[in-house]
Write a structure and sequence with these properties.
Distance between the termini: 21 Å
Strand content: 15-25%
Shape: globular
Strand order of the largest sheet: 2-1-3-4
Helix content: 40-55%
Number of strands: 8
Order of helices and strands: EHEHHEHHEHEHEHHEEH
Length: 219
């Protein structure tokens, strides 16, 4: 089974390769990296890149992908909406994380890029509705200076800023790291509030959709 991953940064490639090696060794990954999609979606909205996303996903399916995972929260909704016409499952990496967060009463969403916040908040509301719950009380934190560090390749500084923002949260039941690139900040936090990130549960869901569920997924 082949899982295609649509990324908007090359930093995600080794992250998902490592997660595949650890939990889904039989899964073949094909990485599609298109940084320009996030640039345009951030400036003009995800709808500005919907046509290009659909073309990329169609190509991935034609080349044998049995499922597609979009690892970018900003364009995840646009990618997911293309699934029904594609004939293969298309998943957004942050949906499993959002489903878990939607069970909480108070959620703080941390993002480094402002364009990520609206689709993340919409997803949280959608998952609460799907679970038959009233929408959580959601607060947002935009980490000042973090995205500039990410774009400059200053990964350590980026993660430190994200971790510090999480540690500053005091009035939440759960903290959501809205972008997949933030995942490693979890190990740098000291907060006792649960901190959720998207890559691991997102890949697990996509692996299941691709038909490559390993024993590790059930442990």
């Amino acid at each position: 089974m082949i899982l295609a991953l649509l990324h908007t940064s090359p930093v995600h490639v080794p992250v998902f390769d490592a997660l595949r090696d650890a939990g889904h060794p039989g899964l073949v990954l094909r990485h599609l990296v298109h940084e320009e999609l996030l640039d345009r979606a951030g400036a003009m909205g995800p709808e500005a890149v919907t046509g290009e996303i659909e073309a990329l996903l169609t190509g991935a399916a034609a080349e044998g992908a049995t499922a597609v995972l979009c690892t970018c929260s900003t364009i995840g909704g646009a990618a997911e909406s293309a699934g029904p016409a594609l004939g293969v499952p298309v998943l957004r990496v942050d949906r499993p994380m959002a489903a878990a967060a939607a069970r909480a009463e108070r959620v703080t969403v941390i993002a480094a890029l402002a364009a990520t916040l609206p689709p993340t908040l919409s997803l949280l509301a959608e998952e609460a509705d799907r679970a038959g719950r009233h929408p959580a009380e959601v607060r947002t934190v935009l980490v000042e200076g973090a995205w500039a560090r990410f774009q400059a390749g200053e990964r350590e500084g980026y993660l430190d800023l994200v971790a510090a923002a999480a540690d500053a949260v005091t009035d939440a039941d759960v903290i959501v790291l809205a972008q997949a690139s933030m995942a490693d900040a979890v190990t740098r936090t000291a907060t006792r509030i649960p901190v959720l990130s998207s890559p691991r549960p997102g890949l697990a869901a996509a692996a299941a959709a691709a038909g490559s569920v390993s024993v590790a997924d059930h442990s």
